[in-house]
């Protein structure tokens, strides 16, 4: 904890390290209460640095020994500062030996070396290695590591670290050792060790080159039957990266380890990926369809980091999206390819865009807005954000949109050819894409350096005589903190034109001279404030389909009539825009109704929305559409996304409108929902494949709508599904339907569910989450759940399952008009700040948009923020969020 104002780090102040580290040898004598770490580094002065002293980072360490070139340093030869060790005037070449003592069992931050359920784990990204030993802990210092682990053999029979196992044996005193060597240079943030009582699911895998590698998934005893899906996902990831990008696994073995106490989803440590159990453990009894899909995605993400992040890493933390945005794009493409159908790809694209709009667009519009490549930070952990990841992925996707799939692959090949084994920048990646394709991408750099979500306005004019159709695109971007004005972005806008029958019109631009085989989708490159594009040979006034496949992360302003939206919803060949048309139609009605409710609370009493109901009926009953697509198309925009469209947010009015529309759709489509429910039931054995998951998704959406009626028939339907479910997806959907209504079996079902799964931590997390998000769960109910014996603030998954789910997933209760939700939030942030600052800072973000709400709520939110600000010493993580949120 700190009482002073934390230092701000600026990208412009980057300087190269004073010394390069060539090799690192580490020896660990592992003990939960007192672990001794001996480190020997060979170092050489960096001729590009002007620094005379050697600066090392360290936090919470007891320094036991310090030697330079074999000689112990006297007290005048070095200085210990707050988080630093500075050695004065070292020689050109240094062998630095350091011995530190650490206390893993007291490390509740879960950064560095810590203990979980009696086992040792590490998390070193971003700056956790400095909690293990003094080191130049920065990503551009890359070295080869050799690590020896020593521990009690009975308590810690498994000893793992990065790379390849080169030696192991007994030490003769009840302890044993294992020595690991990583043949590749890596930054310290990729260091990892695991020691404990674990079991392993292992398989050998033959790479395309013919080389065999060992694949291992390590878990605690009792979880081995939940590892097959993770193993299959790993093999699929290896195969996909070979086929799509020609990238082969470069080690003799690849290991995944699952741990229940983890701040993140997973970590790509070289050859030893450490995962939150949430993204490893799965079988039909405990995991939903979403869990299976997420495991495949996250396993793929961490494996793909082996090249995009490990072999080529980032020069400094400002370049974080260089690895994260690129690797998110790769895992999104992998997941889409695993589905294997055009509709499946569209469904995946829609899901990704929903995340972007629900989380990243609000971030772009709030006090924590930052560019994909930030210019400054106080605590780097706060910048593991949806802007770095999801928006960063969209920036990478735009390269592929502009250059084509083959052009993008050429750029990737050149990137690895130039930079394998190096720590580089976002500009280096952009240069590889430009040079490989002979393109000038200078303006594209603005996607990295400017924050905010651009708005693209579309205006059209049709010349019936000349058969020409003009489309004028203009762009703007609102101010963000520190950026009052913006330069024009380079925006790819994919467009199509539909005739009166709903068919795509071949597209010919006046300046292009396209031949007879004209495409039906064109990518227009908007590079100025305003540009006009003229299409020729357009036989009739078309309906434009703009921003197909969401070709750029922008907000599209286009003045569609309701009838045009219904037309696109029925006919657009671009599945994303077909879904988008339905969302726009629903959003338009919900915004109008919210305005009416704010003026007159009785405005919903005689609700009638024939166009929306008819559109939903047509989509629901269109058997030609994939069930997974219909599920997404028939899901109303979330309350968070609706709020983003409003200048002043009234959460209670938004909730009332959305729920009233759901009830209307339930009532008027009751028979249609029941037909869809029955038609998508599957009596066979459970499979998490995309087709079966899509049918379950549509069936359970129908159940959710029918549950809005809250009558005997819907209660019986939900209870029957709950009692007879053979998988967690169906059981959770039925339990949610019971929990959100007045079903007489609600309490019994919740109690019975806990009794059945109380020994499955991930399922207990689901149980807490479901209740936290139930519409009748208020602050008092959440406090009661916090007193449950299964709840603990110290486990990030458990804290997220209840507190985060309530604050971020239950808007009407969290934004209760008495301010009780905000008081609870403040107490929770303060409590978590003492235990785990990284988790606390994530929760602190829940109120960073407080200025956007109605005046009474705004005042209470501000009071809650101030309560946290004056609560005592704050971690850097929380201090930065609270300070920026309160800044004028």
UniProtKB/TrEMBL annotation:
Protein name, entry field: Aminopeptidase N
Limits of the Peptidase M1 alanyl aminopeptidase Ig-like fold domain: 452-558
Chain ranges of the Peptidase M1 membrane alanine aminopeptidase domain: 230-444
Role: Aminopeptidase N is involved in the degradation of intracellular peptides generated by protein breakdown during normal growth as well as in response to nutrient starvation.
One BP annotation, GO: proteolysis
Assigned EC number: 3.4.11.2
Record domain Peptidase M1 alanyl aminopeptidase C-terminal: where: 562-887
Class of enzymatic activity (EC top level): hydrolase
